[in-house]
Write a structure and sequence with these properties.
The chain is an alpha+beta fold. The protein has a domain at 2-123: P-loop containing nucleotide triphosphate hydrolases (Rossmann fold, 3-Layer(aba) Sandwich). The protein has helices spanning 35-47, 105-111, 132-143, 145-181, 186-233, 239-281, 284-339; strands at residues 2-10, 13-19, 63-69, 72-78, 82-88, 94-96. Strands 2-1-3-4-5-6 form a six-stranded antiparallel beta sheet, with helices on one face. A hairpin with a 3-residue loop joins strand 4 and strand 5. Helix 4 packs antiparallel against helix 7 (284-339) and helix 5 packs antiparallel against helix 6 (239-281). The longest helix has 56 residues, at 284-339.
């Protein structure tokens, strides 16, 4: 029951509070004194209409409508932001923002009013000018039949959507299973890749040794060039000493020659080994492709796992839907049992598949 209503800056009401007694209350006054505005304020609380700024007073300020019932206080305000406030006798206030054109369900339950509860001065007689279908719609809302029809339609739509998703996911799962079979050879290739990586390290070591040999040969060539220059500069008188020196140098050079010969053999062996390793390096692109395939396989395995988990979730949802359908059937049976054999709307015997028409 509504005990009082308070209006601030609402149309012609700057600050008005009306308190109601139990039973029938009558608001009287001259024309344009704000009687209809009180009904509009109640409708704003119950239905969030009328919208716009026409309900706000011309002198400005925050527009507020507050209704006090037996167990709650409901406030609807319009300013820079629009909000509902609900406060029960035993709790803290709850504030609602961004509710659009709808009324928050908590507010609707607390007010317990709708368009059918409002009749304005210029409105036609209640239901007398309505079409038979509109009258049936009003009574269906009163009996709660519209909620049952809506729930049934929503559940059927949900079932169709989930069945379509399940069919698609099963087909996608089978395709992924076939794709994964193409990568069964990858574990063997991983072993071959490890061998190739070891060979590549050995090739790098041989190349480093070859670079050291090249450096030594360059040094030998510079020494020979230096000896040749010095021989031209020796005077004839020192020819004997030069010959003796040359003999000593010859021994040294012979020793160096033997060393270089060994180095040359090492170089030849290294070049031969490099040629062999270069053949191995030629398949580097194939190795890279195999690494890419391994990564693709891991991605597909992850996708397969995700799809399998999604399928399990869908199976659980289908099980819940079946339980909901069974519960709906029980409720429909209870509803039909409670309705009796005579329809309260058309006073006709209820048959199987009966649908009320006015």
């Amino acid at each position: 029951m509504i005990n009082s209503i308070f209006l601030r800056n609402f149309q012609s009401h700057k600050k008005t509070k009306l308190e109601f007694d139990p039973g029938v209350n009558i608001i009287t006054g001259p024309s344009d004194s704000g009687k209809s505005s009180v009904l509009r304020a109640l409708k704003l609380i119950a239905t969030n209409r009328p919208s716009g700024s026409d309900i706000r007073s011309v002198w400005g300020g925050k527009t507020l409508v507050k209704v006090e019932t037996d167990d709650a206080i409901i406030t609807r305000s319009k300013d820079k932001a629009e909000e509902y406030t609900l406060r029960h006798d035993d709790g803290e206030p709850i504030i609602f923002h961004a509710f659009g054109v709808n009324v928050p369900s908590e507010i609707a339950d607390a007010v317990n009013m709708s368009d059918i509860n409002f009749q304005f001065q210029l409105d036609g007689p209640f239901l007398l000018k309505e079409t038979p279908g509109a009258v049936a719609t009003h009574f269906n809302k009163v009996a709660g039949l519209d909620k049952i029809d809506m729930a049934t339609a929503n559940i059927n739509s949900w079932v169709r959507t989930i069945n379509s998703q399940v069919t698609y996911l099963i087909a996608d799962l089978k395709k992924n299973e076939e794709d994964i079979k193409q990568y069964d050879f990858i574990p063997k290739l991983e072993i071959q890749i490890e061998v190739l990586e070891d060979l590549e390290k050995r090739v790098k070591n041989k190349r480093s040794s070859l670079n050291n040999i090249d450096t030594l040969l360059q040094y030998i060539w510079e020494v020979k060039k230096d000896i040749s220059n010095k021989e031209k500069m020796l005077p004839i008188g020192l020819l004997v000493n030069s010959i003796l020196s040359d003999i000593e140098l010859k021994k040294v050079e012979e020793q160096r020659y033997l060393t270089l010969k060994k180095l040359y053999q090492l170089i030849w062996d290294a070049e031969h080994t490099i040629e062999q390793y270069q053949k191995i390096i030629a398949i580097e692109q194939q190795v890279n492709n195999l690494i890419t395939l391994i990564k693709d396989k891991n991605v597909l395995v992850n996708q397969f796992t995700a799809l399998n988990n999604a399928l399990l979730s869908l199976n659980d949802i289908i099980y819940q839907i079946k339980n909901m359908e069974a519960n709906l059937s029980r409720q429909m049976k209870a509803f039909n049992d409670n309705m009796g054999n005579i329809c309260p709307l058309c006073d006709q015997p209820i048959k199987k598949g009966h649908k009320h028409e006015v």
